[in-house]
Amino acid sequence: MDGDGESASRQMPQPQVFKAPRLVSRPKPPVQQEEEMGNEIKLGDFEDVHALSVSEARAVVAAVHEARKKKDPENNPLRDRIYNDNQIITHFLDYLENFARYKEEESIISIGALFDTHPELSTVERALLGTLTPETADEATTLIPSLNDKLHTDELQAILDELNKMQDRLR
């Protein structure tokens, strides 16, 4: 029997060890540029895109929304009502209405004219100033560090004072 015990242990198959397949992944494209808002604005792929403030976006979206509502059904084969009155559009319009600082078209045009007198400001800085509407130059340069080298504190404060005068506060 001693021989049988040895042969039985020899006949037991050894458990196989599972090896996971080697992970193969596609090479990732190199990161071209980090997006950051520092002393120099780096926006990556969005570098040359025109930025809008919330007030400007509200004016554009509201105009498109109204134009779609007025479309004649015969000239509207896609029946835009489906896309025009859905919940997402309604919430988006509500958001823009709540957070737009300048709701009158004249105010938006005046702000554009004010910013046109300062060509050193990028469209992103203009949009941020129009959306955030800081009260002091110190607050503005803290929120938008790239303004430090572009405008003197007094000049920036004059712009901010003008922006605050045009703000539609309780509408």
From TrEMBL:
The keyword Nucleus applies. Keywords: Nucleus. Pfam families: RNA_pol_Rpb4 (PF03874). Residues 44-170 form the RNA polymerase Rpb4/RPC9 core domain. SMART domains: RPOL4c. The keyword Zinc does not apply. It comes from the Eukaryota. It is found in: Nucleus. InterPro entries: HRDC-like_sf, RNA_pol_Rpb4/RPC9_core, Rpb4-like, Rpb4/RPC9, Rpb4/RPC9_sf. GO terms for biological process: DNA-templated transcription initiation. One of its GO terms (molecular function) is nucleotide binding. One of its GO terms (cellular component) is nucleus. Residues 1-42 are annotated as: Disordered. Gene3D superfamilies: 1.20.1250.40. Belongs to the eukaryotic RPB4 RNA polymerase subunit family. This is RNA polymerase Rpb4/RPC9 core domain-containing protein. It comes from Cucurbitaria berberidis CBS 394.84.
